[in-house]
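#help-structures

NK: newbie question. if I give both the sequence and a SMILES, will the prediction place the ligand too? trying with zinc ion
OV: yes, paste both and it writes out the complex. here, I ran yours:
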Amino acid sequence: MIDIPTPLLDALRHAQHIAVLTGAGISAESGVPTFRDAQTGLWSKFNPQELATREAFARNPKLVWEWYAFRREFIARAEPNAGHYALTELEKRAEKFTLVTQNIDGLHERVRQNVETLRSSVSPIIELHGNIFRTKCFREDTRVSDWLATDEIPPRCPRCGSYMRPDVVWFGEALPRRALDESFRAAESCDVFFSIGTSGVVEPAASLPFIALRNGAVVIEVNPEETPLSASATFCLRGVAGIVMPQILERTAEGN
Ligand SMILES: [Zn+2]
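OV: that's the protein plus ligand as structure tokens.
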């Protein structure tokens, strides 16, 4: 059992708005390989930093599309873990809940689909880096969910005929404006902020817990390792989300 301080539980019980930021750690628990770990077999000779860019796609769209198809297959086999489920439970109990993720694997969304009884007014998950299972037009930058299947790789946008690309943020690209604005707003207005499985070094996500702190929120870090946030966070729980989050949930319920 992890020691969960009583003031942390009190803060959670009284919170009006809980905001959560998740990073690669929670996905790793589900067996989603990191960017670099995915470079196996055929793909091991490629540097991901040279595949996940606009320039790489412009140079060789087929290669980049196929690399994403390969990674999608890996990710599709991963299952959400106890940490993902605990967050959905926490969401059910919270008055207001904002979930921001740096992960592109859609695992949070899959839990929501598995759990029926969420309130009708759930706020959408904010995906800062996009979602590998979505596709958008390379030229128009708009999401495309249906297209005519042909043999061509990548497939073409049904509106403009340009190639389509995965709806993820590549190196050198800006994060989606709206997602970013919404996450900053959540960090400013929440009373409890969780930073879960994130290294705390990738900006602008790394700033979110500090914004929450400045605005008086209780900031809880859940991570097996120390991060640049650890020294400032109100509470640090050393462990993986799949272990720590269910325990927090259980202990919070006890007091009710
Ligand atoms: Zn288009």
